[in-house]
Amino acid sequence: MVYSRDLEREKTKGGLKLPKRISSGLGLVVVFTLGFYLAYKASQLYQYQAVFAGSYTYQLLFTSFSWLIPVSILGGIFAGAASEREQSQIIDGQVLRHDGLAFLIHWSHAIATLLLVVTGVYLGFLFIPRLVFTPQSVGYMLNLHFVGVVVLLFSVSCHLTDLLLAGKLKEHWPEAGDFKAALAHYAAKVGIGTAPPEGKYLASEKLSYPLWVLSVGLVILTGLTKISAHVWNLPGGLMEVATLLHDIGALLVILNLAAHIFFSSLVPWSRPLLRSMLTGYVSEEYVRKNHPKWYAELSGQPLRKTDSTEKGSQLPFSS
Amino acid sequence: MSDNQKDLSRRQFLKLFAGTAAGVAFGGAIPQLINLGNGVIAIPASEGYLLVDTGKCAGCSSCMLACSLVHEGKENISLSRIQILQNPFKNYPDDISMFQCRQCTYPACVEACPTSALYVDKENRNIRTVDERKCIGCMQCVEACPQTPSRVIWNFEEHHSQKCDLCANTPFWDGQGGPGKKKACESVCPVSAIKFVQEIPTQYGSVGYDVDLRGPIWQKFGFVARRDS
User: Taking CB atoms and an 8 Å limit, are B146 and A55 in contact across chains?
Assistant: First the structure.
């Protein structure tokens, strides 16, 4: 039902392929199921030196599967370069907001980040105490962390490749006046003033993008440094700085994630966008009311001076 | 037109990317093909060991407090690298157990560490020690230690493993620590139940490490003089 529109689009192309959204979703389920299984199996203790009774260890995926790190980055670059983006257009009162690649990038990033945050918190960092105490449970958390790293690197490299090749960085990056527009947007949500006309991406979304780049970029760079220590003998000072910055970056990611989940899932007016992140589509009416600039681009109609995000249109207490 | 240009640039990028990836993969494989593996890595023996006498130990825990104090700056027996356990349900000499790092000739903890944070410190007479800055907290060394309890301790406050370094790195001690110098536990023990030696003790069982440190004068005080007494 939900994906019938996607299926119709695929049929018109003359193929029998599954819609990208479904195949990406299935792919993610398979990857994470295998990842959880592998992480669990690897964290079981085994006797690794017969000469010493009681000398046990577990398999650390960061060491034994370190080759998966460059493979996931290369896979992400390949997927980002090979994927064809679907253009947003109005079809039967519906607008394609998030295509198959957006679905893949967003949900792989989201699940991987959640997994990394949860396992990172369990392992303890900065002022947060460690919540796992036995080598097996520590191993399981570290191995799950590895699964999250592999998927996150795939997702980020896929996103960056697509962004650079399509020249879409400008769409996401904030412009002058976005801060004022974001304030006016949320003021209008609580009934104060009128919201400015928004484009495809809200001003507040664009403002949050550099924060994501900073926090995720910091975590990835320092994380890769820490992973390198499994292959090369790095200086202690470098590892110390990398660990501290990794922890600070993780804290920033947690704050960003909390804000993102609140504004994109919990507040009632974000529900259509959350739904489109699953189904791909928002209604034409929603776009006309909440993203007038984008609607003007899609419909080919000029943006009227009176166009603005409708005051209180998505408020929970509005009719 | 613009779509065609975009497709073309993506195609060009893919070709370039595939070529580069294949080149890197092939280039990376060459050293693997040439390198046939280095087999056994020799690990030099430590030039210092701590011996204890559990029959002499009074169980005062001074060594544990001193160990924690000189290394961590606080007296916390959970952070001590030497462990003294007391069992009130057993009689002498089984009521007290002393667990010190054996500085094994073949250190399983060093072998297990994935980031070389636990290493053989050649500048300090080959002691087996932890570079805490490099520790990733995987606890593989804690599990790998063949002794029970593990001689590698988990520092729950700073999230890293630690072990006896024969006081080579004691930032909170104004004394000169190290394998060739003073050891905090040995220095504070009121009954001299801990002794530093340079000779490699017998590696099998605990016989080589739990020795008789009592002299003839010990009997004059009315204490049990010999281990087998």
Answer: yes
CA nearest to A80 within chain B: B10
Do the chains contact at B140 and A57, CB–CB below 8 Å?
A: yes
- Chain A residues within 8 A of B153 when measuring between CB atoms: none
The answer to whether the Cβ–Cβ distance between A135 and B140 falls below 8 Å is yes
* Contact call for residues A280 and A94 (beta carbons, < 8 A): no
Q: Which of A81, A138, A230 sits opposite B115 (nearest CB)?
A: A230
Nearest-Cα distance to chain B for A187, in Å, is 39
Probe site for chain A from B8, B143, B157, B161 (most A CB atoms < 10 A) = B143
Q: Which residues pair with A57 in a beta bridge?
A: A46
**Number of domains observed in the structure of chain A:** 1
Query: pLDDT tens, B6-52?
Result: 555 777 777 777 888 777 777 766 666 665 555 556 789 999 999 99
Phi-psi sector, A239: left (phi>0), alpha (psi -120 to 50), beta: alpha
pLDDT digits (tens, 9 = 90+) for A235-261: 999 999 999 999 999 999 999 999 999
Ranges under pLDDT 50 in chain B: 1-4, 229
> Would you call B142 and A135 a contact, using CB atoms and an 8 Å cutoff?
yes
Q: Does some domain include residue A220?
A: no
Could you list the residue range(s) of the whole structural domain that residue A133 is in? 19-59+100-166
Q: Could you state, in order of their start, the residue ranges of all structural domains in chain B?
A: 1-36, 49-220
DSSP per position, B163-190: ---TTSS-TT-SS-BSTTSB-HHHHH-T
Query: Do residues A145 and A63 touch, judged by C-beta distance below 8 A?
Result: no
Is A159 within the bounds of a domain?
Answer: yes
Do the chains contact at B143 and A82, CB–CB below 8 Å? no
Give the residue on A whose Cα is nearest the Cα of B116.
Answer: A233
CATH number of B49-220: 3.30.70.20
CA distance B51 to B211: 7
**Predicted complex ipTM exceeds 0.90:** no
